[in-house]
Amino acid sequence: MKALIETRNTRPERVFLVGAEFKSRNGAASGAGVPPARDGQAVRSTLCSVRDSLAELGELAVTAGGEVVGDGFQKLEAPTPATFIGKGKAEEFAGFCRRHEVDTVIFDDELSPAQSRTLEEIFNCKILDRTSLILDIFAQRARTREGKLQIELAQLQHLLPRLTRFWGHLSRQRGGIGMRGGEGEMQLETDRRRVQDRIARIARELELVRQQRGIQRNARQRNNWPLASIVGYTNAGKSTLLNALTGANVLAEDVLFATLDPTTRRLRLPTNQNVLLTDTVGFIRKLPHGLVEAFKATLEEVVQADLLLHVVDLSHPQVEGQIEAVNAVLAEIGAGGKPTIMVLNKLDRLNHGGSGAGAGGNGANGILNRLQENHPHAVAISATTGEGIPTLLAELGTQLRPKREFVELRVPHGQSAVIARLHQVGQVIESSYRGPKARFKVRIPPYYHDEFAPFIVHDGHGS
Ligand SMILES: Nc1nc2c(ncn2[C@@H]2O[C@H](COP(=O)(O)OP(=O)(O)OP(=O)(O)O)[C@@H](O)[C@H]2O)c(=O)[nH]1
Ligand SMILES: [Mg+2]
Prior knowledge:
Number of helices: 20
Shape: globular
Strand content: 15-25%
Number of strands: 14
Bound molecules: guanosine-5'-triphosphate, magnesium ion
Distance between the termini: 50 Å
Radius of gyration: 24 Å
């Protein structure tokens, strides 16, 4: 992680932000009650304006160490193939950037490699997109071996087709936003073949780390404690909640993506039930697909959880858009539709007449009422003052009562997808691959039973 340092003695990198609003994207979103689409862009068009999205991009840029010098956006029919926004608009922005000594222009949407190259020529400076920026922040935050490998993999895969003269040039001179990361940074300058080799090596190494993690998880689960995962938009207060509930000592900070690596702690409920609670990486709108892929191992904790605590920042004006964005990512990783407690956090900010006017506009309590109406088991809390925590603990106890059950299955050897899925969502206690069908004794949460029903030979209730 050396590139960070290289900017230390120079001024902060000056960035200019560019957004775009497409009519084609907004057309379908006029009516209220349009079901939220899974696709990140559609979610944005229904629930988040280009201004809001640019504001968030600005926060990301600052988190990455940049200084936002200005921004601009364009409304147009559809993306321009060569330059994303219109060529004339790009030239106008380029003029501004020259006058204000901008080092880096960051687009709010993912650019194709060809678009980046053309834009680099027009702007004559480094061009990044939202995806590269998020990757860069993750590179700064990664602490564990696994986290570092995952982020390096995602970076190499994303940046490989985007290598251009500015990257090589800049990375030799200094680091800066978009240039951080482990060995990948040096490899990027050398030939693609070696980058490909590196990608393959990382993938193999990650596989080992993953197996290791599986072993650790099984050791933890030997007690058969249910698993709950804390999920939510970045900066919602997930780590603060884990700390409040378990006395863990996870870094909680008012920045985006403070947490990258998962932390698990035991929580003993007032009813004496034990539950393993995991805090993990936050989600964001338009989370790059490659990153979700790369973080599959980390997010396995979420996929395997019996219950999700979806933490929401009540005081954020885009709270409903954030909820949709989180649900979209959950669906993408295969954890959609899990039993979920909505945790409406930062209640103290509403009580003190904070800025939580909410997207719908009738004041702080308007948003609280609306969320509670839409999510019947929602619990309003403040992770910092402790208000509402007893109610949350009670709700946890109620939700965890139907625990994972013990079942026996016979699966034909040919059904490898079923066998893989079983290992993914269940806890395999015993397996035997002899005979015409593989046999498994597994604990799986009750809501997965239907999926495996054709293979279940024994339903061990009470065992
Ligand atoms: N006022 C108030 N602030 C809170 C509350 N909960 C968390 N915060 C603050 O919100 C900021 C983000 O909290 P974190 O716990 O780091 O949020 P997170 O969801 O873990 O964020 P990432 O790990 O970055 O995704 C911190 O500055 C917290 O102190 C709350 O109930 N009330
Ligand atoms: Mg956190």
